[in-house]
Each structure stands twice: as structure tokens, then as C-alpha cells.
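[Archive record]
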Amino acid sequence: MHDFNLIVTSSRFREEEACDEMLDLLGSFGDSSAEAEITEIRGIILARTALDPLSVVERLKKLAADEPWDIRYVMRVVPIEKVVPAELEDIQGAASDLAARIGPEDSFRVTVEKRHSALHSMEIIEYVAEAVKRKVNLTDPDWVVLVEIVGKDAGVSVVRKDMIFSSVVEKRGS
């Protein structure tokens, strides 16, 4: 799947249950035609929904707070705004486009999660940071430029740090 807009993680060997659970959740949110695909990377599922991926994260957080038992296998859900080939120039271009929403006084950091890629994290970070002309704050940024590489595809998002769903964090009430 090359047009995913959610990356879903699960425990190893629970990918099928997490995939089914995610599709059920997306269906309950109003997207009965969502798709999900288990990747060759253990614990990683790619999903495509017609819903706004950021709103999916918000709805998952609310569900985890109200009915935590409804989320058993999905561990994390990362919203993806753009998918590009996992090439430095393409990643930089996508990050530059999305980073336009970062205000002139706001800070950012680049976070890279890569799976099955020969690219070096520091090289990606340098390329992306070069395109985002804002103040860097590695410990408490206003925004995170997220680069998620899954094989030959890179998902890029510019999010606030609370815009990623973690079932463990949400169920703990943090």
C-alpha cells in the first residue's frame, strides 16, 4: 500500500488482530471502506482511511479514555499527511510543504523512524531541518516533523507531540 495515511503498530504476532481491530474502529468512526495491510515488518500495519488522520487520533484518544477495553491490539497510531518515495529530496520537499504551518516564533524537531531503509537518520534530519527555517528545540518543541520510513515509502507529517495515539499512554491517563 503506497497511499497510506495511518501507521498502526501492534505487538509482534498480533498484527492480524490489530489490523481487524483498526478496521472495526475506523468503521465505527464512519469509514466502512477503510483499508489496512499488514507489512512484512513485524508489528507494522499500514492503513488508508477517508477520514482525516488527525481526527482519527483524537477519536482514538477519546475512546481509550471512555472505553479502554475497546482497544486491545492497536498500540500506536501515527497520522501521515504525505507519502513520498523514501529519497532525501522527496522527503525534504514534503516536509518543507507541510512545515509552512509552523509559525515564525514556533520551534520544531525532526523525528525519524525508519524500517527497512539504508538511509541514515542523521542525513534525513539534516536534509529536513535545512528546509524548515525555524528555531530547533530538541527537548520540548512546539511541532514535530515526523518522517516514518517503511521500505521504499516515506510518510511525512508535521504534528504537535500530542497528535500521536499511544494506547499505553492513553490508558494510563497521561
